[in-house]
Amino acid sequence: MLAILRKEFNSFLNSPVAYVVMGVFLVATGLFVWVFPDSSVLDYGFADLQTLFNIAPWIFLFLIPALTMRTFAEEKKAGTMELLLTRPLTDGQIIGGKYLACLLLALLALVPTLLYYYSVYQLGNPSGNIDSAATVGSYLGLALLAAVFAAIGVLASALTRDQIVAFLAAVVGCFLVYSGFDSLASVFDGGLAYYIGQLGIAAHYRDLAKGLIDSRDLLYFLSLIAGCLLATRLVLQSRNW
């Protein structure tokens, strides 16, 4: 699995895809956090990074599928999928290596945003007047969100040999899991609306953004990731049916 991980990660770094994705993410979040007057921290008057954590999931919704769309679709289209599957590797190792490479690149894009935290920390009055617990929870939520989106993207790529189709399927899947249940919950009232909302990522992400790291939220994210990766494995194993 580590060999596949290194191969995939190096292939990202040797192509413009990684730099375009990270560049777009940092430019977009930077504009919303520091420049646009309706969302700028400088104009908002409060020392927090809520703008970053509100906009980042929507940017990830498009950028992570752009990373994952080539994982299996490109192998199928190039005819190298059969060669890969005949190597002394299990399906789990192949999926794990490709998945972790995409996730690692997505998490790498988050690292420069730590400068945002440092800047807001210093700009607070007094210095350090920022809810660090909520910030840590929000970063954890973003990392788990990226992990789920990457798992959905890998599954979408395994289902087709066309990268564009894989990209569109992943975007739709990520959108439905992130925001679809919230939209559906708004149709209902009372307890039913609450339980429907809990099926989506947004509700659990909001809980983590408050600094409340609950085992139920972590279990939800891990279950989604495991479910998508197991489904990807079933897709690969279907070649033997």
TrEMBL record:
* Protein name per UniProt: Gliding motility-associated ABC transporter permease subunit GldF
Locations listed in the record:
Cell membrane
Organism this protein belongs to? Hymenobacter endophyticus
Name the domain of life this protein comes from. Bacteria
Q: What is its main location?
A: membrane
InterPro entries recorded for this chain?
ABC-2_transporter_component (IPR051449), ABC2_memb-like (IPR025699), Motility-assoc_ABC_perm_GldF (IPR019860)
Q: Membrane spanning segments where?
A: 12-35, 55-73, 94-118, 138-157, 164-181, 218-236
Q: Which gene encodes it?
A: gldF
Which keywords belong to this entry? Cell membrane, Membrane, Transmembrane, Transmembrane helix
| Xref: NCBIfam families | ABC_perm_GldF (TIGR03518)
User: Which membrane topology term applies here?
Assistant: Multi-pass membrane protein
